[in-house]
Amino acid sequence: MKDKNFKYYVAYGSNLNIQKMHQRCPEVLVYATAILSGYKLVSNKVGNNAYLSIKKEKDSYVPVVVWKINKTQEKALDEYENFPNLYHKKELKLKVLLLKNNKHKKIKCFTYIMNEGYPEGKATKEYIDICMKGYKDFNFDQKILKKAFKI
After folding, report:
1. Dihedral (Cα; 31, 33, 34, 39), 10-degree rounding
2. At 102, is the secondary structure helix, strand, or coil?
3. Which domains, ranges and CATH numbers included, belong to the chain?
4. Which of 40, 42, 41, 43 lies closest to 60 in space, CA to CA?
5. Rounded-to-integer distance, Cα 68 and Cα 47, Å
6. Could you tell me the pLDDT band of residue 99, with boundaries at 50, 70 and 90?
């Protein structure tokens, strides 16, 4: 990543929802889509709700979107993800499919992963619907999301 003013953020849950992402981070840009291999999608209980995270698991994968974000947008995401109290950041190197030219490229990026200690749990219908809309926005296989939510 040559431009120090931007980072590449990997989303897999509610931040796949284009409308919600634009509310959190106005003018955010979709950069690419990718498959995050070696991880599975999980729904973890936090208070009276549950939220998505990813967990290492061989032979599993999660479809993701890569957003190009600036520092202000990253701060907004940090707040939304309750970083560092609920989620921590993990740097990744990921082979992505660029949307502008349909070519593959390897990039340095980051994602949020829920901190340890939260058991599996049932999400609210509202949260599930937000995530489902994101999967539809990018034509991702909804079975992966349904499996995580156990629906």
Report:
1. 100
2. coil
3. 6-149 (3.10.490.10)
4. 40
5. 31
6. confident
**How high does pLDDT run on average in the chain?**
96
Q: How far is CA 16 from CA 2, 11, 85, 105, in A?
A: 25, 6, 22, 20
Question: Tokens representing 42?
Answer: 């999980």
Cα–Cα distance, 149 to 60 (Å, whole number): 16
What phi, psi does 20 have (nearest 5°)?
A: -65, -40
β-strand partners of 91: 110
Integer Cα distance of 96 and 117 in angstroms? 31
SS3 track for 11-78: ECCHHHCHHHHHHHCCCCEEEEEEEEEEEEEEEEEECCEEEEEEEEEEEEEEEEEEEEEEHHHHHHHH
